[in-house]
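User: Structure tokens for this complex, please. No commentary.
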Amino acid sequence: AQSVTQLDSQVPVFEEAPVELRCNYSSSVSVYLFWYVQYPNQGLQLLLKYLSGSTLVESINGFEAEFNKSQTSFHLRKPSVHISDTAEYFCAVSEYGGSNYKLTFGKGTLLTVNP
Amino acid sequence: SAVISQKPSRDICQRGTSLTIQCQVDSQVTMMFWYRQQPGQSLTLIATANQGSEATYESGFVIDKFPISRPNLTFSTLTVSNMSPEDSSIYLCSVRGIGDYGYTFGSGTRLTVV
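Assistant:
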């Protein structure tokens, strides 16, 4: 069975500082990996995903994540955060192939950007 | 990606009653899922809604408590039955499109049981 571990439940940072949100996964087969963002009192939005190909994936708002198969990690990074990046971030995994398409989520990391 | 309309967006219900949540998608999708997000928690999969057959439930969730329908490729309902305050959560519909490996989520239904 697949599982996701987000190592930090809360990450406070100052505006314009770099940030890394850590995510590790466990699965017996190949996986697809996702980062979702949930702004206060809103639904989930897909931030970025890794399906295949280049291990570095980028979002339109400056976030990037790198798939590391040997370390089973998919950490999310941004070189300079804004106040508006304050939100809950969820890492998720889906198994590749087979008949199990369900998405398994980590517990989430609350990113708080302070002025 | 698909656009999901989920209704109602929120409700306050009396214990012992039932609430049916609707999920309408603007295009045909292969997979539809229902999730629960308890206050301050992550998302937990309740079940996969299968078109034309019974839903597939995850461990800890049963059909009598969370009956699901999916009459076609663009619509599904989740009913929360015989509600108690412990059922107060956000319930989200999610879909996976045909040929699309991304998952889109509805805006959720915020349920409070009093």
